[in-house]
Amino acid sequence: MLRSTERFAELYDRLGVKFEIVYDILWREYQRMVVPLGPAMFDYTISEDEARFLLSKFPKALLVRWTDGFNLTDDYAKTENNSEESWYAVICTEFKDLEELSVNNRSKIRRGLKNCEVKRVGADFIARNGFNVFISAFERYKGVKKPAITEKEFRERILKMRDFEDIVHYWGVFHNNILIAYSENYIYDDIEASYSTIKFHPDFLKLYPSYALIYEMNRYYLRDNKFQYVNDGFRNILHQTNIQDFLVDKFKFKKAYTNLYVFYRSYLSIYLKITFPIRDILKRVVPKLSALYTTEEISRRQNV
What 3-state class would DSSP assign to 183? Predict the structure, then answer.
């Protein structure tokens, strides 16, 4: 078991998040799914009986979702037919210094570093100062409503992270000593730093805070602390923020392809079998079903 797995179990206890540790893997509920927590490169393959057991432990979950990992030595190629319709994590294994980037990118990073100061900060600081950035960031997201969370609730959640700086890192971006962006990163030993939550205040985007933040975090994790890779998460099928395209284009992140597996509750499995042929119609009629059908499409395509 990873050292970080035990620490995340302690953190989830404090947060009141339900989880189960099965075969040294921590499983949690996320958006009505049961998913593993840990480095994306790991193989989390389980049997149908094990998936059924997990669903019995999470009565509100509709499905169990897992992946079988990727190998950093084979250019992340998991299947012979990788495409934009495949499943992947967006990762970077090597820090690129300014001289290794395009002239245009170098210019924007330099402007970002000149306009902004980027540094590690504590949970206390984000709890006191991060809510305005957090809530304002949603103004950029098309089709995404601002979360129904109060500043008090935001502060209370972040403060619970105070004793877990070994597995949850906070970074702040400042302009004239004002917080204009921040990142919440999950740390899995020295294997992966997951850029879990990144928020930018829309009023300051012209200062290039995104360039400064990613550059400094990549330098810290990949060059200074020798992590195997940093990860911006799996392919986003819920809404588009363009952050993953930005990372691939500007900072040489790559798509690490992996097979996607899903095990549904019996009634949902029956529903999908019946309605899958008319899914395009149902997606338009009930947009909330789009992510479910897209997940099923990817799973079927990769596991024929």
Answer: strand
